[in-house]
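So, can you check this record?

>
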Amino acid sequence: MRSVLKYIGLSLLAALICYVAYSLIFTSGRERALMAENGYLSEHYDNLLERSDLVDDVLEGLELRDRQIYNNIFDIDPPTAEMLYGSDPEQRLEQFYAESEQQLIDESGAVLEGLCSTAAQVDRQIRAINEQLESENFNKNNFPSVIPLRNFTIAQTGATVGRKINPFFKSMAVHTGIDLMAAYGTEVIATGAGTVVEVLRQGGGMGNMVIIDHGNGLRSVYAHLSEIYVAINQKVARGKVVGKVGASGAAFTTTLHYEVRKSGRAVDPVNYFFGSLSPATYSEMLLIAGTAGQSLD
């Protein structure tokens, strides 16, 4: 009996040795396919890594140029994506570990293509901004980039440009500026240097109103004023008091209706407030102004 068990044990050992030797010398078709796939993935990964490093270098250069231009215009560093929208790196890391190698490669390739496209677009925009900055007609002091109210707080933010509920008719209507709530008689200042091109004193509509031309197709509008301190064709500097907050015209309460018009089209004034807001406050103002459903005029 012992000899039989010994014979079986030696046979199993010999079979195991033969199997290991065969595995080391010969490879199956499946193993060869996997080895070829691994080689391809490794080569493809190295290629993507090189492209990623190149894109990172380009984006770093663009970011530096963008910061310089932004400082020239607004005298402040630009906000970052993390400051504006926040991030959740832990959740993204969990998703990263859950994905397969091929998924990661495919996603990385798609992201790189998007980054290359974005980099090209940003480069074109920066070139256009540089051309404008080098223009003899451009003056950063003319840019309407500050809050038109003294001692402004974020709580004074009302509805901005878009379709809002009219406070009188309770129906949707296009709102062409931003409502900045303030006490009656609060001083209203010019957001940029320019020339007063229109002064209106009226009982309806936008009430008492001042329009300043800042050049380069930009104009600022100050409406529902209680008093006006400027005249047509008057040159004003940034910070010049042009009037006081009121409720003239069709205003629901004391408020400053403020507009920025670019080439005659109303744009969101919040986008021009970097000169007087921190990135965090700007982010909060964007949220409040964008989600307010009812205007005050």
